[in-house]
């Protein structure tokens, strides 16, 4: 479990610099250059992610069961992951109404994904992994919205075409991942 915890601290710690130390981050980029900053950020993120994957796989071998997941929770988790995929795609499709409304759809996608997985899973490792990501996403979303308000950021209105493309691609990617990808990567088939 300690490898999972170290990975979470490293990965989410790097991704939390903007939440807790945005001024320091800006100073580091100015001092070292954007390329160096991105290189350090990427290297630490990859190391943290690898530790998370390794630590979680080790923890799954000897699980500490905390509760019994209900069948309805698994169905709700599938629906929530659909929403999460649409939100994730909204971060990349230009001129969509979802991004225009929520402003930070990727972080909201992580929130919804984490809640879905907390509903469907039941071990201590699941609580650590998905609970940590949920807490991070809540804090990051709040910080990003505060930065938007402070900077008077405005988001362009979305178009119907951009929104429809976002939803269609999100549903298609979700269906492919739910039917095949999740089972291939994690050994668990949601359907």
Explain how this protein is built.
It is a single chain. This protein is an all-alpha fold and 191 residues long. It folds into two domains: 1-62; 63-191, no CATH class. 80% of the residues lie in helices and 0% in strands. It has nine helices and no strands. It has helices spanning 2-15, 17-20, 22-32, 34-61, 71-90, 97-102, 105-120, 124-150, 160-186. Helix 3 (22-32) packs across helix 4 (34-61). The longest helix is centred in the first third of the chain and has 28 residues, at 34-61. The protein is globular and about 45 Å long. The two termini are 28 Å apart.
Brief rundown of the structure:
With 191 residues, the protein is mostly helical.
Coarse structural class: mainly alpha
Indicate the proportion of strand residues: under 5%
Domains (count): 2
Number of strands: 0
Distance between the ends = 28 Å
Helix content: over 70%
**On the 0-100 scale, what is the average pLDDT?**
95
Largest sheet: none
What global shape is seen? Answer: globular
The low-pLDDT segments are none
**Oligomeric state of the chains?**
single chain
Our count of helices gives: 9
Report the order of strands and helices.
HHHHHHHHH
Radius of gyration: 18 Å
Record keyword descriptors for this entry.
mainly alpha, 2 domains, 80% helix, 9 helices, 191 residues
Q: SSE layout and pairings?
A:
Elements: H1 2-15, H2 17-20, H3 22-32, H4 34-61, H5 71-90, H6 97-102, H7 105-120, H8 124-150, H9 160-186
Helix pairs in contact: 1-4, 1-8, 3-4, 5-7, 5-9, 7-8
């Amino acid at each position: 479990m300690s490898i999972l915890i170290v990975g979470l601290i490293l990965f989410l710690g790097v991704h939390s610099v903007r939440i807790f130390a945005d001024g320091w981050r800006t100073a580091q980029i100015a001092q070292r250059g954007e390329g160096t900053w991105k290189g350090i950020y990427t290297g630490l993120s990859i190391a943290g992610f690898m530790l998370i994957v390794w630590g979680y796989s080790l923890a799954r071998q000897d699980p500490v069961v905390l509760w019994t997941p209900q069948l309805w929770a698994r169905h709700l988790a599938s629906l929530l992951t659909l929403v999460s995929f649409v939100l994730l795609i909204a971060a990349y499709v230009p001129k969509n109404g979802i991004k225009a409304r929520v402003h930070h759809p990727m972080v909201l996608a992580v929130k919804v994904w984490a809640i879905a997985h907390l509903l469907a899973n039941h071990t201590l490792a699941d609580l650590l992994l998905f609970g940590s990501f949920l807490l991070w996403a809540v804090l990051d979303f709040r910080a990003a919205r505060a930065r938007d308000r402070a900077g008077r950021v405005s988001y362009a209105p979305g178009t119907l075409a951009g929104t429809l493309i976002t939803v269609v691609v999100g549903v298609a990617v979700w269906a492919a991942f739910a039917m095949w990808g999740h089972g291939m990567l994690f050994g668990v088939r949601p359907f």
